[in-house]
Design brief:
The complex is a heterodimer of chains A (about 100) and B (about 375).
Chain A: H1 3-6, E1 10-13, E2 17-22, E3 25-30, E4 36-39, H2 41-49, E5 51-55, H3 56-67, H4 71-87, E6 91-94
Chain B: H1 2-15, E1 20-24, H2 48-61, E2 65-69, H3 79-88, E3 92-97, H4 104-112, E4 117-121, H5 127-134, H6 139-152, E5 157-162, H7 171-181, E6 184-188, H8 208-215, H9 218-221, H10 224-227, H11 236-240, E7 250-253, E8 258-260, E9 270-271, H12 277-283, H13 285-291, H14 314-319, H15 328-338, H16 343-352, H17 370-376
Parallel strand pairs in B: 1-2, 1-7, 2-3, 3-4, 4-5, 5-6
Antiparallel strand pairs in B: 7-8, 8-9
Classes of the chains: A alpha+beta (about 100), B alpha/beta (about 375).
The structure holds iron/sulfur cluster (2 copies).
Chain lengths: ~100, ~375
Amino acid sequence: MGVDHLSALYIARSREVAARVLGGEMMIMSVRDSRLFNLNQVATMIWQAADGATTLEEIAQRICVEYDVEPGQALRDAEAFVQELARHGVLLVSDQPIQERTLDD
Amino acid sequence: MSTLLEEMNQRALQAGVPLSVQFDVTYRCNERCVHCYLDHDDHGELTAREIMGVLDQLAEAGVFFLCFSGGEVLMRTDFFGILEYARRLLFCVKVKTNAFMIREKEADRLRELGVQSVQVSIYSHRPEVHDAITKLPGSLKRSLAGIRLLHARKVKVVIVDVLMRQNLQDALGVMALAKELGVEYTLDPTITPRMDGDRSILRLGIRQTDLRQVFRTPELVGDVEEVCAPPRAVDDSALDGVPCSAGHTFCYISPYGDVYPCVQFPLPTGNVRHERFLEIWKHSPQMNEVRSIHGRDLPTCSSCSHLGACTRCPGLAYMQGDMLGPSTQDCEKSFARTGIPSAHMLRRAADRVPASTGLVQIIGLQQPAAPALASAQ
Ligand code: SF4
Ligand code: SF4
């Protein structure tokens, strides 16, 4: 999946993770492989916005407003981050809105 | 990854966040292990609703790692409801179970709910030895079947082998079995006194000579040279350091809602039925007393050459009568590893030699039954 296509995509948090905010930063563990991620504030914002209904582009726009960064830069960074987390099964990516899945699904 | 984990621990320590909690949801059990420290009767367990309320509070307090244990967790018919709730709150959950009751359905649930790992105690690869310890006929067979079902579903399983006189000779056998099953193996040479203070089960623990041998078996401990290295000089980091995570980034909650610094440190600090968890964690005088203790506050241990490398457990010391004192079991481990006596051993030896000694003495009058008790198991 190319980076260029990601901005039009929807992202959602996988249910196969553990997550908690510690000292203002989000700690996430993939329960599949016990890999641990520490997200900075911007990455935490993306993570929290990953509701399956909002596109990555919209999320990047919010980042621009909140952190006063240039839109192209925000989107590029967000895309790279999403790709990395998707590779570990921590974020789900789709070109359709992703229904929030419960643990019973 | 371990570096990030260490960093996380450090941050939690500085911020006073209880990063990990062990929550025993029941003391009831289908096994009756000879070395178990629990009273298996139900004296009024928290209901599932109460547990869920506590889980909400733990998430709010910043708890990330949550270990469900017992007793046998699956003795609770509502266990999966509790586990599901915990996972909705995004805890990283580890489950300790004897796996006897894990069939297809339970294995599927554990997989679906995304537990990080399942820890199972296996005492021998031979049914006659394992089942004699659990006192439940057929338990090895059933537990191994449970492990296989979990492994087939890619659930991480860790076998824990508690070493006792009864099963010591089978340690390498259990290790080979773990390898064959494709799961992790860890050993635990520590027997914990019973929660009611009865220390008689400590007699089941392995002898000093055997402990020495265990620490010199590379298959069991890895780098023998490192494990058995003489203690490094005690420096300020050891004297200013805290003994362990108990009460600092970790605590324990019993099935009755009692909060302790650790499962092996039964100092009552409060009860979640009467107070909010964070109130106990932050303001309990006992929790704060535990937190205030540093290496240099320990009368005997601060003068011990082992202090920097010793696994001294303040909970075991507490159960021996003084949370500031040495823990004899850890002194034994330090001695077995290095051959160098601990400060505690030296003091006891000095105390045993009176100024004028009679040639003939009666000694050890209180412990004449040790061999008979051990062999009666
Ligand atoms: S050293 Fe003892 S009290 Fe501390 S965490 Fe370990 S078992 Fe608990
Ligand atoms: S070996 Fe014994 S006396 Fe020395 S630090 Fe450890 S517990 Fe304390």
